[in-house]
Amino acid sequence: MSRTILVIEDEQKIAQWVRTYFEQAGFTVRLVADGRAGLNLVRQEPPDLVILDLNLPGMDGLDVCRAIRQDKTPAVANTRIIMLTARVEESDRLIGLELGADDYVVKPFSPKELVARARALFRRLERVEQQAITELRDGELLVLVEAHQASLAGEPLDLTPNEFAVLVALLQHRGQALRRAQLIELALGHNYEGLERSVDVYIRQLRRKIETDPANPQRIETVFGVGYRYA
Ligand code: CA
User: How many Å apart are CA 224 and CA 195, to the nearest integer?
Assistant: First the structure.
């Protein structure tokens, strides 16, 4: 079955352009121009991937992203999201990653590049699904890789898909200092623009969620001049 893509974008020219490229690549594509209508569609029939513009009528793209991640239905909450942002929206881009977007593409972008990003995301998904290691543990921290669940002292952790992937990569390379680029490659399967800051966003969020004292991390250590290491 072909993967389904929902494009939430009010600029008709861009939306049509994106549709053409994804359809040529064998995906099934739906278009919607309004944020709220887009969110309703995601809830009714979760697609495999949402291409989400930030500046939308009806409901802002960041609010759509937040609402998807906070949805009670896991099939909705785990929908993959690639944001479309303008170059001037850099702070929005970081907020978007914190809210749980999987990736972003800066306008003006090449549709070819966007399709490549989507493919990388799906490859990553398939790799996680095929992973032989199903359980990673560090004291009270337990990560069930296939089930995409993590808990601390029995309490479920609310991690975005990217935070989860970064945590799994760190745990799989325990004791090893990983450069930011290496970490993103291991976790997300590709490199992208703004990479170093994105890694730092994920680490900051993870520390907030898994460390007793995020200011004095005992699990995820900073290795100065290198990157990060899981202790
Ligand atoms: Ca727009």
Answer: 17
What total number of domains does the chain contain?
2
Domain co-membership, 199 together with 165: yes
Cα-to-centroid distance, 18 and ligand 1 (Å): 14
In angstroms, what is the span from residue 59 Cα to ligand 1's centroid?
11
Answer with the one of 60, 89, 122 that is the final residue of a domain.
122
Domain termination residue (choose one: 98, 122, 146): 122
* Ligand 1 centroid distance, CA of 57 (Å): 8
pLDDT, one tens digit per residue, over 113-153 is 999 999 988 887 777 666 656 789 999 999 988 788 899 99
Ligand 1 centroid to Cα of residue 116, in Å, is: 22
How far does the centroid of ligand 1 lie from the alpha carbon of residue 15, in Å?
10
Calpha distance 56→230 (Å, rounded)? 39
Per the structure, the complete domain to which residue 99 belongs is given by 4-122
Distance 144 CA to ligand 1 centre (A): 38
Secondary structure (H, E, C), 22-70: HHHCCCEEEEECCHHHHHHHHHHCCCCEEEEECCCCCCCHHHHHHHHHC
Whether the per-residue pLDDT at 28 is higher than 90: the answer is yes
